[in-house]
Amino acid sequence: MASADLGRSAWRIPVRAYTSLTSTSFCNSLIDHDHGTKLTVERLLGVSKDYIQVAMAANLKDFVLTNYDGQEVKGCEISLHDVVPVAYAAFPEETVNYVSADDNETLFDIVSLRTLVNISVDARCRMNHLATSVIALSQGVPFFHAGDEILRSKSLDRDSYNSGDWFNRLDFSYSSINWGVGLPPKQKKEQHWPLMKTRLGDPAFKPHRKHILVALDSFCTFIHIRYSSPLFRLHSANAIQGWNTK
């Protein structure tokens, strides 16, 4: 889900190319990246849509869907970039859906890294809302990284188990997201500091209290929707396939 929602890992792209980012995804599809022809862009977004459709159906390997090419295929017949099948599960409980986790950047940091510098903070916040809403409405087990709901930042640090409270802070007063408190530790990210400095030092990247409260409200709304009906929490592959065909 994370790759389709937010694009490939930022650090797989060389730093010299990263400022223009070649990672198209569902949540940042409206961003003005240059991906070539219109047909190429439509293809990239169509493939991402297929990935997300399978993920929202709990990554069920036998789930039948109509793919971007208009063909009926099973989830296990849709492949990732490395030809590994997207779907693998026989039961929805076998799938844990997420867009960010403790050993990566936070969701807001990922969005901030994978979008162009001229995108508004309001747009970045909406991408955060969209990503969490997809998880909230997916079949299977939803997993949210602590702080996804309040735009939490680790100042672009990742895998921060040894970074202390300075980078791992969670502010439940909703006054700050911990963005721009310093560059991540040297031993892990020094080679990326030039890129990070530009973003962390730009006031236009930093959300304010109003953004945090809107994010929290959006998150709570979608959690409420998830638990408003058992249809968002089906317990069998047959039930999920049956609902999809209605």
In short:
This protein has about 250 residues and is mainly alpha-helical. The protein has 10 helices and 4 strands.
Could you explain the architecture of this structure?
- This protein has helices spanning 2-6, 15-18, 38-56, 107-113, 121-136, 164-168, 186-189, 193-200, 209-226, 237-244; strands spanning 64-66, 72-74, 96-97, 141-142.
- The chain has 10 helices and 4 strands.
- With 246 residues, the protein is mostly helical.
- The chain is globular and about 50 Å long.
- 38% of the residues lie in helices and 4% in strands.
SSE topology:
Blueprint: H1 2-6, H2 15-18, H3 38-56, E1 64-66, E2 72-74, E3 96-97, H4 107-113, H5 121-136, E4 141-142, H6 164-168, H7 186-189, H8 193-200, H9 209-226, H10 237-244
Parallel strand pairs: 3-4
Antiparallel strand pairs: 1-2
Based on the model shown, name its key terms.
two-stranded antiparallel ribbon, 10 helices, mainly alpha, globular, two-stranded parallel sheet, 246 residues
Based on CA atoms alone, the radius of gyration comes out at 18 Å
Low-pLDDT sequence parts: 8-24
Helix content: 25-40%
Strand sequence of the main sheet, in spatial order? 1-2
Report the strand count: 4
Listing every helix as H and every strand as E from the N terminus to the C terminus, the arrangement reads HHHEEEHHEHHHHH
What is the residue-averaged pLDDT? 86
Number of helices: 10
Shape: globular
Residues in β-strands, percent: under 5%
Q: Structural class given helices, strands, pairing?
A: mainly alpha
What's the N-to-C terminus distance? 24 Å
Largest sheet: 2 strands, antiparallel
